[in-house]
Amino acid sequence: MSGATAPDPVRRLYEATPFPSLGDVETREAGLRSMLANCFGVDPASLQGATLLDAGCGTGEYSAAWRRIVGERGRVVGLDLSMSSLVRARRLGEGHGQWVEGSVLAPPVRGPFDVVWSSGVLHHTGRPHEGARALSALVRPGGHLIVGLYHPWGRWRLRWARASLRMLHRSGTKAYREGARAWLRAFRPDWTSQAMEAHVIDQFEHVRESHHTVRELRGWMDAASWEWLGVSPLVTRRGKPGWLRALRADATLGRVEGYMFRVAWRRRG
Questions:
Q1: Which residues contact 192 (CB under 8 A, 6 or more apart)?
Q2: Which domain holds residue 226?
């Protein structure tokens, strides 16, 4: 997804096809509120008036959703590599928010923030742990860091479809992209042509992506300085965590983009 890192191939990818270009702010707001309350134990009402950094904001759908949560007294800053994406984010934000061009590996913004959110970004940097550390430095004591990453078991249907297409066609060819569109359309027939093209490039032709486990991420932050809050989506079965089911898409956040997990920490102090 957009806002990953400084290398030209990633920047060029998102300049040409700003991501995700969906405009589904209401759906994302509902998903965020559910995630905060049910998975991380954070009351969304407690974030009224908060300052928030959306690191890798893309075309600004989550920035706009967070704006509704933090309210008029709050402040949302969107950071992204792609100026094309930021132009659309500014338009979607209807004049609200602050928009900054730059990398999550060296964020050109000044903290601290009450919340730093970076979903679907760090796994495209090549240095996700370094990116997480850079973002964590922007969180105030008592604030929250929330990141979303691909899991090795996640997105298996997409990865199978991608591998199958690459056996038949060279990536980037007309036939390859037609196959990618057909697969995505089976899940999301309602997408505009712009959103479809953005997802074809991001999901089927990205130049870099990595996969991470919950256990790995738990070790990214010093336990003495950071309190682990949990993982989303949290799916329970008979009162116990259903970890395999938890790796499935969170329907409230969209089937394709939901093929990742999100984790949260609270900074002690």
A1: 21
A2: 8-151+207-267
The Cα 105–Cα 78 span in angstroms is: 15
With respect to residue 2, please indicate whether it lies within any of the assigned structural domains. no
DSSP secondary structure, 29-67, as one string: HHHHHHHHHHHS---GGGGTT-EEEEET-TTSHHHHHHH
Q: What is the pLDDT of residues 89-107, one digit of tens each?
A: 999 988 788 999 999 999 9
Coil, strand or helix at 267: strand
119 neighbors 260 (Cβ within 8 angstroms): yes
Model-level pTM?
0.87
CB 121 within 8 A of CB 1: yes
pLDDT in tens, 149-177: 988 877 788 889 999 999 999 999 999 99
